[in-house]
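queue> pop job 88
queue> type: inverse folding (structure -> sequence)
queue> payload:
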């Protein structure tokens, strides 16, 4: 096969956000937009690898353009001196499985074709994320360097005759490429095998099997894959490995190009079907995943909602029931800045270190590589551990089932016991999605100015709703210095911390593909047991109303209510 060098014109907007580059699918498909971004990555990789031909993993969440884009990557990899590609069968592989495979086979990294929780299809979004050799998302130093290259790109390299590679049949192919000193190899690998094998090493599958169908009787659960990439993993683990077809009801386990019209984000709004099933059905436990399988939502009987912040804290407090942690020990914990402080209390009690990082999984990687942390999570339905370097929805579900098998068969009781020990952090997030115009940016600017001037510090406010009083102790723009490599990241969200420890956080989303999305996070701690059963929305309404007033959110955005509340 011959290499073609094709001229192209650079784009100026290929800057990856919180988690890869996400744009409307049509943008990626037009004017070699996708090809340009991949070429910029290959250019960067060639440089950092010092000419040593890399081996990479390629997989995606099955959304529209994943198969096609995998074929493009194959053509371009052949022409860019990539030694070998490990491509998932049908190009479908969950994000955590990609991380697992990179680590297992010691590859130099991977390309994940996903816009994760963003809707898919020709009229929705597509995305690309680069992972590094530790299996995690590339840090900013890498993504910035790729971005710089993308802005100066003048040509792309490809082997146009390498067409229609059979991605459905497992096996190895080798191709001679003109002008290359080594052949180009492709291996089509099973998307599910390596991952499932790893889960069986981490968890006690016999115990979980016994929970679902043991001497104590059936334990019915409901799993909803929202038509994302997780379907085959769910069927394999629950119906085959755990042999629990009668106890485990599954929904939307067929991976569809447009996710069947679902917004594949496992929260109370977009995974409403699961909420309703739990409210009306007789299930003890329910879970949903996002499009690429790294997020999870956990519900208990009757639809009892476990906030991701509490999920992280409860898992952190009980890791000792999981064989992996019995073997590897438990280092510290970490959470993203907007995530509630529930896990901080577990860290304090267990005398573990607690790290607070900016939003996005890439910030946890160094901490895990250096064995500073074992478990970490984000309020955005992301939970994971140092078994891989991505958040992992199935891992969280199996971890919860381990707790249910070992501690108590009721999710709600586990939560109540936790609150009785540690107190309860009430948490909520308000999202104002896809706002047009400059309003959100002006709002953040104004909040930044308030931080700089310190004008609100030590001031007391009466809440517009509920007439409670709060005094501001700190107001700042969150920044982070990585304790391992010293890298510095600033402007990661406006924090308003009150004298009672309650917090309000404002930031703009970095994963949207259209308009601007404002997120308001609210975290407030209570240690009066009579409050533990109260509704979080009711408890937090006064603080929310104060946040909206301080930021003048409605004036800036024109929105009088959020699009999603979690
Ligand atoms: C959101 C979440 C963040 C998460 C990121 C990627 O980012 O808030 O916690 O890491 O999505 O998740 P943002 O910038 O929109 O707030 V995933 O499952 O979409 O890769
Ligand atoms: Co995701």
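queue> result:
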């Amino acid at each position: 096969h011959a290499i073609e060098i094709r001229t192209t014109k650079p784009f100026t907007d290929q800057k990856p956000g919180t988690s890869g580059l996400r744009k409307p699918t049509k943008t990626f498909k037009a004017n070699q937009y996708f090809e340009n971004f991949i070429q910029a990555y290959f250019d960067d990789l060639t440089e950092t690898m010092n000419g040593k031909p890399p081996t990479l993993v390629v997989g995606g969440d099955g959304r529209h353009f994943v198969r096609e884009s995998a074929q493009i990557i194959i053509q371009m990899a052949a022409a860019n001196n990539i030694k070998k590609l490990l491509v998932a069968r049908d190009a479908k592989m969950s994000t955590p499985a990609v991380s697992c495979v990179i680590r297992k086979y010691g590859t130099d990294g991977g390309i994940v074709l996903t816009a994760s929780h963003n809707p898919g299809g020709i009229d929705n979004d597509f995305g690309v994320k680069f992972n590094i050799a530790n299996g995690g998302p590339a840090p900013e130093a890498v993504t910035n360097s790729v971005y710089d290259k993308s802005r100066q790109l003048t040509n792309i390299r490809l082997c146009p005759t390498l067409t229609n590679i059979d991605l459905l049949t497992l096996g190895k192919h080798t191709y001679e490429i003109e002008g290359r000193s080594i052949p180009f190899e492709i291996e089509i690998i099973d998307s599910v095998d390596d991952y499932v094998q790893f889960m069986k090493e981490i968890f006690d599958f016999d115990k979980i099997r016994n929970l679902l169908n043991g001497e104590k009787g059936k334990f019915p659960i409901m799993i909803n894959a929202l038509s994302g990439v997780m379907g085959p993993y769910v069927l394999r683990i629950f119906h085959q490995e755990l042999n629990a077809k009668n106890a485990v009801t599954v929904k939307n386990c067929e991976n569809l190009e447009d996710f069947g019209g679902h917004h594949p984000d496992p929260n109370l709004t977009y995974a409403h079907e699961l909420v309703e099933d739990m409210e009306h059905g007789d299930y003890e436990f329910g879970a949903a995943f996002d499009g690429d399988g790294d997020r999870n939502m956990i519900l208990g009987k009757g639809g009892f909602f476990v906030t991701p912040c509490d999920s992280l804290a409860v898992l952190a407090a009980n890791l000792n029931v999981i064989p992996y942690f019995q073997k590897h020990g438990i280092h510290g914990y970490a959470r993203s800045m907007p995530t509630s402080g529930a896990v901080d209390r577990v860290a304090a009690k267990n005398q573990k270190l607690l790290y607070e990082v900016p939003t996005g999984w890439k910030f946890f990687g160094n901490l895990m590589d250096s064995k500073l942390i074992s478990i970490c999570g984000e309020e955005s339905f992301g939970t994971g551990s140092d078994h891989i370097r991505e958040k992992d929805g199935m891992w969280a579900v199996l971890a919860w089932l381990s707790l249910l098998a070992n501690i108590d068969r009721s999710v709600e009781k586990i939560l109540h016991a936790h609150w009785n020990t540690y107190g309860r952090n009430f948490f909520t997030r308000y999202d104002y999605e896809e706002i047009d115009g400059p309003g959100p940016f002006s709002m953040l600017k104004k909040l930044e100015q308030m931080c700089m001037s310190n004008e609100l510090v030590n001031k007391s406010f009466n809440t517009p709703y509920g007439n409670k009083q709060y005094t501001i102790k700190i107001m700042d723009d969150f920044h982070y210095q990585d304790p391992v490599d010293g890298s510095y990241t600033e402007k990661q969200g406006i924090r308003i911390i009150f004298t009672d420890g309650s917090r309000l956080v404002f930031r703009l989303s970095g994963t949207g593909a259209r308009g601007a999305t404002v997120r308001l996070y609210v975290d407030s701690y209570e240690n009066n047991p009579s409050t533990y059963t109260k509704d979080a929305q009711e408890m937090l309404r006064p603080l929310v109303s104060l946040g909206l007033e301080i930021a003048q959110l409605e004036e800036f955005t024109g929105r009088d209510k959020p699009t999603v509340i979690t």
